[in-house]
């Protein structure tokens, strides 16, 4: 999976939020997106995930111009908000949401759900009403719900905000596992944590421009 940005911008009325001439991200990369509040980090990630339309420019997905793909976002590109949405029902029900059709048997589905719950440290809470979970548990549940879909790209908006040390540890382990499966990770965070330290590239939105703060030489060609 590869996403290429070609001259995208986002405006609100006369206000230009940002203008980005080019950007390329692909499988196996991990990026830390920085910027002050209001700089446009969330908006940019939503545009890359196909959830919001840019004011101009285009997004190229796997070599195909996807100017209208926000009308039907790619199911392998997932954006997670910093305040995760939780469905009614049990934790297990939430994890298996939308996945049943991909498995030939209930047994295969149950095994996959059990594995993801274990990774998220939620096995003991599998039958608990999901909406009664703590904030950290809900964040792990949302990540588990994404992980079970085996995404190619995952956009994480402040994934460790207000989490305790144990939840940050588990979230980091989950993201590490996804990255090892060649999932591209982009995360925004004001905190420096074990999760941000995993990132190979650091990007900063500042004064409407996207700057490369740091990049492993192997990835600098994507700036």
Automatic annotation (TrEMBL):
Q: Where would you find the membrane-spanning parts of this chain?
A: none
Q: Which residues form the ABC transporter domain?
A: 3-223
Task: Note one Pfam family from the annotation.
Answer: ABC_tran
Q: Give the keywords, sorted.
A: ATP-binding, Nodulation, Nucleotide-binding, Transport
What terms describe the molecular function in GO for this protein?
Answer: ATP binding; ATP hydrolysis activity
The GO biological-process annotations, alphabetized, read as: transmembrane transport
Per the record, GO CC terms?
Answer: membrane
* InterPro entries, A to Z: AAA+_ATPase, ABC_transporter-like_ATP-bd, ABC_transporter-like_CS, ABC_transporter_ATP-binding, ABC_transpr_CbiO/EcfA_su, P-loop_NTPase
Q: Which family does it belong to?
A: Belongs to the ABC transporter superfamily.
Recorded protein name is ABC transporter ATP-binding protein
Originating species:
Neptunomonas concharum
């Amino acid at each position: 999976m590869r996403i290429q940005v070609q001259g995208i911008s986002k405006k609100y009325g006369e206000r230009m939020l940002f203008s980005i001439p080019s950007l390329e991200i692909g499988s196996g990369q991990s990026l830390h997106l920085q910027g002050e509040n209001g700089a446009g980090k969330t908006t940019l990630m939503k545009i890359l995930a196909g959830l919001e339309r840019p004011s101009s420019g285009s997004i190229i997905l796997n070599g195909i111009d996807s100017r209208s793909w926000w009308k039907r976002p790619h199911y392998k590109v997932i954006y997670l908000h910093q305040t995760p949405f939780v469905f009614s029902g049990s934790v297990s029900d939430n994890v298996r949401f939308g996945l049943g059709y991909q498995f030939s048997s209930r047994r295969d589905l149950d095994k996959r759900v059990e594995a993801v719950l274990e990774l998220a440290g939620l096995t003991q809470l599998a039958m608990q009403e999901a909406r009664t979970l703590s904030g950290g548990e809900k964040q792990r549940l949302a990540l588990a719900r994404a992980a079970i879909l085996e995404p190619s790209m995952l956009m994480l908006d402040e994934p460790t905000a207000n989490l305790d040390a144990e939840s940050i540890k588990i979230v980091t382990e989950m993201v590490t596992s996804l990255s090892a499966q060649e999932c591209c990770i982009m995360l925004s965070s004001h905190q420096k944590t074990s999760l941000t330290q995993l990132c190979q590239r650091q990007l900063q939105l500042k004064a409407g421009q996207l700057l490369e703060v740091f990049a492993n030489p192997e990835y600098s060609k994507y700036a």
